[in-house]
Amino acid sequence: MATITLTRISKSFGATRVLNDIDLDIQAGEFLTLVGPSGCGKSTLLRILAGLEEPNTGEVRIDGRTVNAVRAADRNLAMVFQSYALYPHLTVAENMMTPLRLRDLSWRERLPVAGPLLARAKHKSLRAQVEETARILEIEPLLQRKPGQLSGGQRQRVALGRAMVRKPVAFLMDEPLSNLDAALRVHMRSELAELHSDLGTTFVYVTHDQAEALTMSTRMAVMMDGDILQLDSPQAIYENPSDIRVAQFIGSPK
Ligand code: ADP
Ligand code: MG
């Protein structure tokens, strides 16, 4: 079943056409990478899916609902940013609570009388959710630290954890490993693949690194000049690239 469907998405910036009528079905629970050389339109496509950019034409559907008019914050997608964007003055636990607290606040405003009582009960379950998430990510020992006391890899897990507590339809990641050094980057590949299989949530992952895409994804969409040239499993693409451009980019023997 497709969780996310993009239909005939096109986008131009001024006279420059960046996406050419892209069709893409993203299956529930898959790890889909958008992979291709720099400038081919990966980030633009992801931003359109996230609601951070408007397409010129086309439709974005999430769980069967057209969301073109739905704000980014209301699409229930978790965009994990490269810079992690953690609050430096808050602990890891507080950072992970923040999106829940914000949601809780708007919920409380709608219930002026029963609100405070319910909020206290709810707060407990928020803490439980944060603890559960920390357990899955194996960052429980870090909950009382501040972001400045964490390594790059640990900050990444916290950023993921903060996104996870909202139970999003999908995680969207744009080159999340590109700030890390080479050894950690390779280590994080297997971590992310493992995390994906633990969670079972849909991942949509942008990278220009074909090795990353080949090792982590369930399926990869190879993009070039605003088109998806081939969409298939890493093995199928590696063994049977659809044309010479895919073969050259992937480095497969065709
Ligand atoms: P990728 O993520 O694959 O490197 P992008 O989607 O970031 O590619 O960019 C695709 C093309 O669109 C590039 O030529 C880029 O310069 C251009 N582009 C992206 N965002 C904008 C923008 N906001 N304004 C103008 N041009 C843009
Ligand atoms: Mg990009």
TrEMBL record:
<dbReference type="GO" id="GO:0005524">
    <property type="term" value="F:ATP binding"/>
</dbReference>
<keyword id="KW-1278">Translocase</keyword>
<keyword id="KW-0067">ATP-binding</keyword>
<keyword id="KW-0813">Transport</keyword>
<comment type="similarity">
    <text>Belongs to the ABC transporter superfamily.</text>
</comment>
<protein>
    <submittedName>
        <fullName>ABC transporter ATP-binding protein</fullName>
    </submittedName>
</protein>
<keyword id="KW-0547">Nucleotide-binding</keyword>
<feature type="domain" description="ABC transporter">
    <location>
        <begin position="4"/>
        <end position="250"/>
    </location>
</feature>
<keyword id="KW-0472">Membrane</keyword>
<keyword id="KW-1003">Cell membrane</keyword>
